[in-house]
Amino acid sequence: MSVERRPPLVSVLMPIHNGERYVGEALESVRAQTYRNLEVVVVDDGSTDGSAGIVARFDGLARYVWQPHQGIGAARNRGVRLARGSMLAFLDADDLMPPHRIEHQATVVRDRPSVDVVFGEAMEFVTADPGPLPGLRPASARSPLRSTGTMLIRREAFWRVGPFSVTAGGGVELDWRARAVELEIREEMLHEVVLERRLHDGNYGRGRPQARRDMLPVLKAALDRRRHVARSGQAGAGARGHRP
């Protein structure tokens, strides 16, 4: 008699900072996943609102840890260190996962040993609380997106790239993605929506000039690394060319 293998454990990692308005919906979307072998780690990055109480309602689904406010990079890193799964997925506390997201992405990773990370498409939706907000742009249609929020990655592949920056500010996503590309992490794009990204007054419009400024040193660091690799390669070629 054949014994059905238990699917690999997937860790869903959720940083939160004063996210009481939406974290319940985010956790409900994880609970609705068709993939059953999941753990959820919620890292509270110094919230001062009622986030902890809402997460407590999901006892049995989510593990909750609190830390002093250090930023999203530090919160995600804490989640990865606490995770037990061989695959990692990330969900911000104001976004949602479609029900088949983990099942479909994990199937690709499980069935294709050459793939390190699977991305997918994102679809935006607008929540204007308490009402319409000037400057809140309309949600965009679904489109492929290579970001932390759309990826499912092998745990060992994540550590090959290394932890998220805790100093890059608004450039934390760009910094991690640049390092992954430089290491030629093997990726696949799943052509279905894996992330429903919420646009609201707390995540859009505020801090955008600073976020753009944060990206400049990240881009410079990535360019410097590429120049260093190019110079190292040229030096190596020169040395080989002058062998007696």
Explain briefly what this protein structure is.
The chain has 244 residues and is an alpha/beta fold.
Key attributes of the depicted protein:
single chain, Spore Coat Polysaccharide Biosynthesis Protein SpsA, Chain A, alpha/beta, 22% strand, 7 helices, 244 residues
Task: Kindly describe this structure.
The chain has 244 residues and is of the alpha/beta class. It has one domain: Spore Coat Polysaccharide Biosynthesis Protein SpsA, Chain A (Alpha-Beta Complex), CATH 3.90.550. 36% of the residues lie in helices and 22% in strands. The protein contains seven helices and eight strands; from the N terminus they run E-H-E-H-E-H-E-H-E-E-E-H-H-E-H. Strands 1, 2, 3, 4, 5, 6, 7 and 8 form an eight-stranded mixed β-sheet that branches. Helix 1 links the parallel strand 1 and strand 2. Helix 6 packs parallel to helix 7 (208-241). The radius of gyration is 20 Å and the shape is globular. The model has no long low-confidence stretch (mean pLDDT 86).
Proportion in helices: 25-40%
In angstroms, what is the radius of gyration? 20 Å
Q: Which percent band covers the strand fraction?
A: 15-25%
How many β-strands, per DSSP? Answer: 8
What's the helix and strand layout?
Blueprint: E1 10-16, H1 23-31, E2 38-45, H2 51-56, E3 62-67, H3 72-82, E4 87-90, H4 101-111, E5 117-126, E6 143-145, E7 152-154, H5 155-161, H6 172-182, E8 187-199, H7 208-241
Parallel strand pairs: 1-2, 1-4, 2-3, 5-8
Antiparallel strand pairs: 4-7, 5-6, 5-7
Helix pairs in contact: 6-7
